[in-house]
Structure formats: structure tokens, C-alpha cells
Design a protein that fits this description.
Structural class: alpha/beta
Radius of gyration: 25 Å
Shape: globular
Number of strands: 11
Number of domains: 2
Distance between the termini: 57 Å
Number of helices: 15
Helix content: 40-55%
Length: 386
């Protein structure tokens, strides 16, 4: 009852301020998924059918100046007063720790883990790729990254734990790592290092306001990644020292999901930025083809590619490719848009990043594309994966 009274009171306040806000508010910067409606031309048929009235209502709703003021006010009330998320995909956890819901469902096994058979099929594919690349004097490396729900399970709201299975099966991550260890595939799993860093650092390894690991965490793990690649692949890469310092503002991706809430207030999270020093720039000339998701951005790209650890890079993050001049760069929705075979031929290292939550969809179809299209010059192995 008290919450209802508060909500009604706030509603009257907003209505009273509405007229003044409409005159005073300038265009703001709403974030998240906001698409403005364009004004529709009028026709008798559209008026008769009711379509024009609906379209015009959407137009007014999106183009009233006050909307860009009311939405953050309404969202702030939901967030601060009612402890409710104004974005259905973002969960407010304990200690104001924000999560994307899918990571929680994966961690708590509300989403069932992969089966051992599915894990074996996936790792068998990776092993075939590894062996095929070695025959061509190329190197294959896998980078495993953790999810926020994996590192901060204690802040997951109890409601999710109450509906999750009481007895947990072996996790997808655990089965994947066990199977990977039965092969000779080179890899670096950053999860244990991030867990350790959580216990010893003064900063949050995943900011409460972000779905990704912090820029500092990513840089530290990227340094360890380079060391692992040197040791396991027998290559020479630059050396670096990663330190950090406080900063007053969040930079991408440290407040990515907090920004999507469209609130009035800034978060009270303390932010840090990495301070990177290349201590030894000696390296060999290697070209890399990297395929992964957004965690690869702050790690491999943020340290190694941006600091020229490689002579050339073919970089594919989610649905965006950045390649050397003369090769397609930009958004892609099919691997057929990219000269994948030429990219493989020109690369010395084939690199795959996978977040532990994304193991079931590892590489976004890239693994199957390589095998199904005979990109590596091997015979069709499709019968092995049925």
C-alpha cells in the first residue's frame, strides 16, 4: 500500500512538471533500444482503417521533448524507490550489482547445461581444426573468459536461486575444460586468475555497473594471455606491465548496462583505468585471425592488437570485422561476406575466444563453417558431428 501511495504521489509531481518540462527540455541522449517514429503522411484509407491514428500516436509519444526527461525520471523512481529494473533484460542484484538475466540463468542452471555428448562433439571439432592447422604449420589457440555471474554468484537475487535446480549437474564450463585437457590444444583459461584477482584487488573485477570484466581486469588477463601464447605456441611477443589508477568517469565497457537503464543519477561505483607499459617490444612477425565475442574486445584487442603485438590481424568480434586494408571490414551477417580461406592462408595463428556462458554457441558458427566448407583443406567430416 505504501508503495502504491508513493507511486501515485510521484505521478502527480511528474504531471505537474510536465508542461514546464516540455518547454524547457532540450534533446537528450537516451540509451538502450530507442527508435523514434517518423511523422506519417495522411490518407483517407489510413484514417478509415485506424492506422494513421496509431502511427500519429507513436509519433507524438517519441517526439514530445518531455519524453526525454520523463523517461529517466520514471526509471530513476523505479530504480531508487521501488528497487526495480526499468529494463527487462537487466537484473538488479544484491549490493546494486547489475546482471544480464541470461548469464544468471546459465550460472544457476535454470538453463540446463550441455550434455557430455554435446561437449565431446564440440571439442572433437576443435581437435580436428587444431590438427589440420598444425599440418599446415599454423598455430591454434583458445582463450576462455568468465562471466560476471560465475565470478559474483553471491550477488545473484535469491528469486533465481529459489527456482534453479537444487542439485546442480556438472557445469558446461567444467565439462568443457575437462574435455579440452584431454587434447593437445593450446589455451589460456582466465577464470582462475579472475577469481584470484577478485580476492586480492581493491577494485571490482566486474564493475557493478557493467556486464563485462573491467578494463583493468581485461588488461591484466591479456598480459597473462600473451605469456601463455608465448609459452605454449613457442612464439615471441612483446612484454608489458599493467598497473592501474582511479579515474573519475567510467569508460566502455565499465558501465555498459547501467547506461542502458537511462537513469538521472550517476552510479557511485569507483572506476579504475589500466596503465600499460610495454617493457619489451621485441617480437616476431605473426599474423593472427581472431574470432570471438565482446570479452575479446577489451582483452586481445584492447592490449595486444592495439599495441601492435602482431604484424597483421583479421579481427571478428560478434558481427563486426576489422581487417587489413584491401580486405572487407564492417558488419557481416554471413561468413560468405568475408574471404575466410584467404584470411586463414595469410594467418599464422588462428585464435578463438569463448566466454564460459557462450560455450554452447562457441565462435558463432565459425567452427562449423571452417569444417563444413573444407576451408582447412580437409575431407568432409560432417558425419562425425551428427
Amino acid at each position: 500500500m505504501k508503495n502504491k501511495i508513493l507511486f501515485i504521489a510521484f505521478s502527480f509531481i511528474l504531471m505537474a512538471l510536465g508542461a514546464a518540462g516540455q518547454l524547457a527540455v532540450k534533446s537528450g541522449n537516451l540509451q538502450g533500444e530507442t527508435v523514434k517514429e517518423e511523422k506519417e503522411s495522411i490518407s483517407f484509407a489510413d484514417v478509415w482503417s485506424g492506422k494513421w491514428q496509431g502511427d500519429y500516436e507513436n509519433y507524438l509519444e517519441d517526439n514530445l521533448k518531455i519524453r526525454e526527461w520523463l523517461i529517466p525520471v520514471r526509471n530513476q523512481i523505479m530504480y531508487s524507490v521501488f528497487k526495480s529494473s526499468p529494463n527487462s533484460n537487466i537484473v538488479i542484484g544484491k549490493n546494486q550489482n547489475l546482471y544480464e538475466e541470461e548469464y544468471i540463468c546459465f550460472e544457476t542452471q535454470i538453463y540446463a547445461p550441455m550434455s557430455r555428448e554435446e561437449i565431446d562433439i564440440l571439442v572433437n571439432k576443435l581437435d580436428i581444426i587444431d590438427k589440420a592447422l598444425k599440418e599446415k604449420d599454423k598455430k591454434f589457440f583458445i582463450f576462455i573468459t568468465p562471466s560476471k555471474a560465475e565470478i559474483y554468484p553471491e550477488d545473484i537475487p535469491d528469486i533465481y536461486k529459489s527456482v534453479a535446480p537444487k542439485e546442480k549437474a556438472e557445469s558446461t564450463y567444467s565439462m568443457f575444460m575437462n574435455a579440452l585437457n584431454q587434447t593437445n590444444i593450446a589455451y589460456y583459461d582466465s577464470t582462475p586468475d579472475v577469481r584470484e584477482l577478485k580476492e586480492t584487488s581493491e577494485f571490482h573485477v566486474f564493475p557493478r555497473t557493467g556486464t563485462h570484466w573491467s578494463r583493468v581486469t581485461a588488461a591484466i588477463c591479456a598480459g597473462k594471455l600473451a605469456d601463455a601464447m608465448e609459452e605454449q605456441l613457442g612464439i615471441n611477443l612483446p612484454e608489458c606491465k599493467v598497473e592501474y589508477e582511479r579515474c573519475s568517469e567510467a569508460a566502455s565497457p565499465d558501465s555498459d548496462i547501467y547506461n542502458l537503464l537511462n537513469l538521472l543519477e550517476k552510479s557511485d561505483e569507483e572506476y579504475y583505468k589500466p596503465v600499460i607499459e610495454i617493457t619489451d617490444s621485441d617480437k616476431e612477425d605473426y599474423a593472427i585471425l581472431a574470432r570471438g565475442g565482446s570479452f575479446m574486445g577489451a582483452g586481445l584487442n584492447g592490449l595486444m592488437i592495439q599495441n601492435n603485438y602482431f604484424s597483421r590481424s583479421y579481427y571478428m568480434e560478434n558481427t563486426f570485422a576489422v581487417c587489413p586494408e584491401g580486405t572487407y571490414s564492417g558488419n557481416f551477417d554471413s561468413y560468405d561476406m568475408l574471404p575466410v580461406q584467404e584470411m586463414i592462408v595469410d594467418s599464422d595463428i588462428i585464435f578463438l575466444e569463448v566466454n564460459e556462458e557462450a560455450i554452447p554457441r562457441m565462435s558463432f558458427g565459425f567452427i562449423d563453417y571452417l569444417l563444413d566448407n573444407n576451408i582447412l583443406g580437409e575431407e568432409d567430416n560432417s558425419e562425425l558431428f551428427n
